[in-house]
Structure formats: C-alpha cells, structure tokens
Design brief:
- The strands form two sheets. This protein has a six-stranded antiparallel beta barrel.
- The chain is globular and about 45 Å long.
- It has a domain of 102 residues: Beta Barrel (Thrombin, subunit H), CATH 2.40.10.10.
- β3 and β4 form a beta hairpin.
- The protein has two helices and 14 strands; from the N terminus they run ββββββββββαββββα.
- With 270 residues, it is mostly beta strands.
- The longest helix has 9 residues.
Amino acid sequence: MIWCVAFIFCFGLVRAETPFDFRVHNNRVIGGSNAKPHVWKWQVSLQLDSNNDGSYFHICGGSLVDTFHVLTAAHCILSSNPQQYRAVVGEYNLDRFEGTEQFLRVHSIFVHPHWNGDLALGNDIAVLRLADSPYDNGYIGIANLPYSGDTLPNGFECFITGWGLTDFAGSIPDILQEAPILVVEHSVCSQPDWWGSLVLETMVCAGGDGLISGCQGDSGGPLNCYTDGAWRVHGVVSYGPAGMCNQLRKPTVFTRVSSFIDWINLVMYT
C-alpha cells in the first residue's frame, strides 16, 4: 500500500495504522493495463493474516531476489511476527487460483536498521527470509539487481508493476497491472515545485506527468528497468502524494535499490 507523504499516497507523513482491506480479490497501477501473464516473474504479492485465522489479504508488492529472499518496503511491515505473512509467487489474478501460484511462509523479517517510520528520511526497505524455497514451475524468476551506486538518467523508461489502486476512488482490479513510467532525476525531483527536500539521493522518482503512478497496494513492489542487458529492480515503491496518486510534478518515489546493495547482500548472505 503506498503510504503517502503529506499522506504518502493517502494519509500524511506518518505511518498509517492499517491498510485498506484488500481481500485477495481485488487491486492496480494508475494509468496501467493488464500485464501479460507471468512476464514479471519476480513479482511477489505480500499477504498478511492480521487476525491469525488463515485469511490472508494482499497488502504490498515485493520482488523475489533469490530463492529464499523477498525485497519489499519497510513500511509494509505491519507486524513483527513473520508467521502472519506469506509471499505469493507465480501470482497473476488475485481472485483466482490458477495453479501457477506458490504460497511461501516467511521465516524472518529484516528491516533496514535506519528505518524509523519517517518516509522523508528514507531507508524504506526490508528483506523477508522465506521458510520455504519456491520450485521452478516456469512461472517464477529471480530479480536482477542493479550495481551498487547505479543511477538512471532523466527520462529513462522503466515499468511499474503491482496490484494497487487504479484511482483514488478505490478501483481495484484483480490482475497484475503494468505501466511504463519515466525516471525524474534527483536534480529535478528535488526542486521546490516537485518533491523538494522530501526526496533524498537514496530515492528514485518516476512519473509526475499526471497520468501514470503507483498507488495504494503497490508499495514494496518493483521499479523494473532494462539496464546492462537485463531487467533489473532499480526501485522499491515507497510513497506518493496525498489525494490523487497521479499528480503533476508529484511522481511516485521509490527507494533506490543501488544505494542499499551492500545491506541487502549482508542480510542475504550472513
């Protein structure tokens, strides 16, 4: 769920208490369209059983970054109990069981040590260690990550994917959405009539054309960019504007993955 700066895609520069109750039957990227089935094979639906009764619902996106780890946003961690989460890979239509899905238990949660709940201070990134490794059924894949320190030029086209809202009125389709979205370099995004000082160099801005954006339900999901001969997850959806998600000069803001490669590797390999 994208939290909002000055509402972070909905509520105010504070952590929201509970996400909208997206039962596993609805959700979308604004300005997007149905993705082709199982193209974004590393896309994860992070789901929460908030009542401990076996009823899971989609709260955020994520990326499968190796066979035992999922990359997502720190603000998606609503409970410290890993047993309340599951990561669904091979997912496409949240409303149907299509036989391609694998439902994976979460063993442990690693939130960046400098995350303090304030999105404007950054570090909105977390890694989930899975209790179960998915098997290769042809519908899942491991995300490539950028090299440490990589940045993207202004206007570079990437794709945002997710099951978030399609509009602020709450339209939420079941099928994974995708949309091309253009990077806005830091020197532009940090201007006063854009995001100003709320955007750090450890973040990536994309969108801001008033047409395409992430929205609630997309948080934690990937910014997919084709660089160095491969699709790579360059960003993790973090926040957006209050009210309408697709506002002019208020692009979707992502945690810049290339700024956290060392920490990600430390979590995964130690």
